[in-house]
Design goal:
Layout: H1 6-35, E1 41-53, E2 57-68, E3 74-81, E4 96-97, E5 102-112, E6 127-136, E7 142-149
Antiparallel strand pairs: 1-2, 2-5, 3-4, 3-6, 6-7
Length: 151
């Protein structure tokens, strides 16, 4: 039996090193792209106050405080609570926040037929998802969400 020649052994070692290097580079690129996603705004506080509920509709007031924690101008597009747009959404649409600025407002959300969907039941202590949609000077269609307990 003959041993491998030094040239073939060297080529095999180089091939193994290249494959390992490609694997490490791929893992690094995946890691950096998933951790580099930046949120430009933060929902600092949100309160859902249940005012009136019957079989026809539910009136809930959303008090929200939003801060621009990024380094770009942010324009708020809309707010949703469990997929519903508040009836007074014009209070927040088009609001521009410079880096570091905070905006607070309250608005009424009216849900029609609230008892038809048990996942969106409006009772004190139920959990609801508040989502803010926004754009920056370089990106569009961004969103941030916060789970809020109704009071």
């Amino acid at each position: 039996m003959k041993a491998l020649s030094p040239v073939i052994a060297t080529l095999i070692l180089i091939a193994i090193a290249v494959i390992a290097g490609v694997f490490v580079l791929r893992q690094f690129l995946i890691f950096t792209t998933t951790t580099a996603t930046q949120q430009y705004i933060e929902i600092q506080d949100a309160v859902l106050q249940v005012v009136h509920v019957n079989d026809t509709y539910a009136d809930v007031y959303l008090q929200i405080k939003i801060k621009n924690v990024g380094d770009q101008l942010v324009t708020i597009d809309k707010v949703e609570v469990d997929g519903y747009t508040p009836t007074e959404v014009s209070k927040i649409q088009g609001v521009e926040l410079r880096p570091g600025e905070t905006f607070a407002t309250s608005m009424k959300v009216r849900y029609i037929n609230p008892t038809l969907d048990p996942d969106k039941a409006w009772e004190t202590g139920t959990e609801h998802l508040v989502t803010v949609y926004y754009n920056t000077t370089t990106t569009t269609g961004q969103q941030v969400s916060l789970k809020v307990i109704a009071r």
